[in-house]
């Protein structure tokens, strides 16, 4: 029997959603989603209600549903891809230099993300040190770039009948409500609670969630010219903060008065000149 197709980009939690559909409907017994794996890729032999496929691997034209994401989702999505979805365990919050990418690239030259342009990006920015690393990360958050650009191509290529929003995964009420609706569309009922799976899912992402909240709080301090110590922000957080500030100001930052700030009261960006 042909199953409805769930299309999802790597890092957008398609494996997790597929397993929750099967478990909550009762067609599959409860099981450990993370057994012996970094990401939710274990127990591939479970009974499925949908065929979850990456767009690059799908030869058809129609999709029952697509996991859709927005620009504001990229902070969590990028982290999840490198940390778990790719199963290489590269934590972007720990990346301090381009050298942290070297083992990942050298041992995975045939991996899609490496062949898809990561190595070229590293070569473009690596000679600029931490400034270049910050700029590369910042580029990942921009509109019409990277994963957002790929998603736009997906929407042009495929006929997508339903969308499941990436942000719903991070609020249990939203996740459960929309999971129940998907089950109804599949002719199934929600008969087994999966809150413990959702909580495990969130617990594994708590550090990245909290780090995003910190950056958003720093952005509020920038708007109000308030003090906040950001001296412990990692490069990934700094890049996201710069992105948010650029969105707010409407221009690209070139430098900061007195160097990169340690406190938001001293975050004084200088607009990049146009050649």
Helices, by number, come to 10
- Using the CA coordinates, give the radius of gyration: 20 Å
Helix fraction bin: 40-55%
How many separate domains? Answer: 3
Give the strand line-up of the largest sheet.
Answer: 2-1-4-6
User: What percentage of the residues does DSSP assign to strands (E)?
Assistant: 5-15%
Q: What is the N-to-C order of secondary-structure elements (H for helix, E for strand)?
A: EHEEEHHHHHEEHHHHEE
Whole-Å distance between the termini?
59 Å
Shape: globular
- Structural class by secondary-structure content: alpha/beta
In round numbers, the mean pLDDT is 90
Characterize the largest beta sheet: strand count, sense, and whether it forms a barrel: 4 strands, parallel
Q: How is this fold's topology laid out?
A:
Blueprint: E1 5-7, H1 14-25, E2 51-53, E3 62-63, E4 65-68, H2 74-85, H3 102-106, H4 112-125, H5 129-140, H6 147-157, E5 159-160, E6 163-165, H7 172-185, H8 195-203, H9 206-224, H10 235-249, E7 253-256, E8 269-271
Parallel strand pairs: 1-2, 1-4, 3-5, 4-6
Antiparallel strand pairs: 7-8
């Amino acid at each position: 029997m042909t199953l409805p197709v769930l299309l999802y980009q790597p890092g957008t939690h398609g494996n997790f959603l597929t397993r929750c559909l099967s478990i909550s409907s009762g067609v599959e017994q409860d099981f450990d989603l993370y057994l012996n794996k970094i990401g939710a890729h274990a127990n591939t032999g479970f009974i499925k209600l949908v065929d979850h496929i990456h767009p690059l691997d799908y030869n058809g034209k129609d999709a029952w549903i697509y996991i859709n994401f927005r620009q504001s989702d990229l902070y969590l999505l990028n982290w999840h891809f490198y940390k778990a979805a790719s199963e290489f365990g590269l934590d972007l919050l720990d990346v301090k230099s381009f050298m942290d990418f070297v083992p990942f690239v050298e041992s995975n030259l045939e991996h899609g993300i490496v062949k898809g342009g990561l190595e070229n990006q590293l070569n473009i920015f690596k000679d600029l040190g931490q400034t270049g690393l910050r700029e590369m990360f910042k580029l990942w958050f921009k509109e019409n770039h990277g994963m957002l650009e790929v998603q736009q191509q997906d929407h042009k290529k495929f006929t997508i009948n339903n969308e499941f929003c990436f942000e719903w995964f991070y609020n249990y009420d939203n996740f459960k409500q929309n999971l129940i609706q998907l089950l109804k569309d599949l002719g199934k009922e929600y008969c087994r609670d999966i809150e413990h799976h959702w909580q495990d899912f969130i617990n594994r992402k708590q550090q990245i969630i909290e780090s995003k909240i910190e950056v958003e709080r720093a952005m509020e301090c920038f708007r109000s010219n308030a003090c906040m110590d950001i001296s412990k922000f990692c490069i990934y957080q700094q890049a996201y903060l710069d992105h948010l500030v650029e969105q707010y100001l409407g221009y690209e930052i070139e430098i900061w008065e007195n160097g990169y700030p340690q406190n938001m009261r001293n975050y004084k960006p200088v607009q990049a000149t146009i050649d």
